[in-house]
Automatic annotation (TrEMBL):
<dbReference type="Pfam" id="PF01361">
    <property type="entry name" value="Tautomerase"/>
</dbReference>
<comment type="similarity">
    <text>Belongs to the 4-oxalocrotonate tautomerase family.</text>
</comment>
<keyword id="KW-0413">Isomerase</keyword>
<protein>
    <recommendedName>
        <fullName>Tautomerase</fullName>
        <ecNumber>5.3.2.-</ecNumber>
    </recommendedName>
</protein>
<feature type="domain" description="4-oxalocrotonate tautomerase-like">
    <location>
        <begin position="2"/>
        <end position="58"/>
    </location>
</feature>
<dbReference type="InterPro" id="IPR014347">
    <property type="entry name" value="Tautomerase/MIF_sf"/>
</dbReference>
<dbReference type="InterPro" id="IPR004370">
    <property type="entry name" value="4-OT-like_dom"/>
</dbReference>
<dbReference type="InterPro" id="IPR018191">
    <property type="entry name" value="4-OT"/>
</dbReference>
Amino acid sequence: MPIVNVQLLEGRTPEQKKAMVKEVTDAIVRTTGAKKEAISIVITDMKKEDYGINGETLA
């Protein structure tokens, strides 16, 4: 039962997320042989002020 966690900076549309879930699911089916029905994908949107790189937040 593959569970995939995807963290994204906020701003993606519902349509983009839907397309990503389909593509990631298809890739897991293709590469692992897992059944589509067994795959779960969790998307977490992060605010720019909650993500830092190079000592600075992105906000």
